[in-house]
Amino acid sequence: MNANIILIEIKNIYSLLHDKISIILLQWNNIADLIHQEIDMTKKLEKTLKFPCAFTYKIIGLAKPELIDKVIRVIQFYLPGDYIPQVKSSNKGNYLSVSITIFAQNFTQIQNLYYELSNINLVRMVL
């Protein structure tokens, strides 16, 4: 190989790397923006709520009988009590929507339950 071909190959590799790094940096900035938005929304929610208060979660998950039991078990672990979830099935029957109201003493309880409910393997979304 002569020097000109090697130089062209190096330029091509540099160009590809530059493009990939630019894409990664753009994605990183998008992720950072989403994190800042979530932090802002969390702060707004925390300021809006007056404790103690009732707080309703809507959990959307796969239509499996154990979904409701798992949701109640997680909530019972953090806030023991009697809970009566309202359950609705999706049109095709693939998903369940489980609405359940808790009585929170502070914002940390709401956050902890949100993350714990999100970690249930059958859960697809927590609102």
Write out the strand line-up for the largest beta sheet, numbering strands in chain order: 2-3-1-4
In whole angstroms, how far apart are the ends? 61 Å
Order of helices and strands: HEHEEHE
Biggest sheet statistics:
4 strands, antiparallel
Helix content: 55-70%
Give the class from helix and strand content and strand pairing.
alpha+beta
Could you say which overall geometry the principal axes of the C-alpha atoms support? elongated
Query: Which CATH architecture of the largest domain?
Result: 2-Layer Sandwich
Indicate how many domains the architecture comprises: 2
Quote the beta fraction. 15-25%
Report the total helices.
Answer: 3
Radius of gyration: 24 Å
What structural keywords apply?
2 domains, alpha+beta, 4 strands, 57% helix, 127 residues, 4-stranded antiparallel β-sheet, 3 helices, Alpha-Beta Plaits
How is this fold's topology laid out?
Layout: H1 3-48, E1 53-62, H2 65-78, E2 86-89, E3 95-104, H3 107-118, E4 123-126
Antiparallel strand pairs: 1-3, 1-4, 2-3
Helix pairs in contact: 2-3
Written overview of the protein:
This protein is an alpha+beta fold and 127 residues long. The protein folds into two domains: 1-48; 50-126, Alpha-Beta Plaits (2-Layer Sandwich). It has three helices and four strands. The chain has helices spanning 3-48, 65-78, 107-118, and strands at 53-62, 86-89, 95-104, 123-126. A four-stranded antiparallel β-sheet has the order 2-3-1-4, covered by helices on one side. Strand 2 and strand 3 form a beta hairpin. Helix 2 runs antiparallel to helix 3. The protein is elongated.
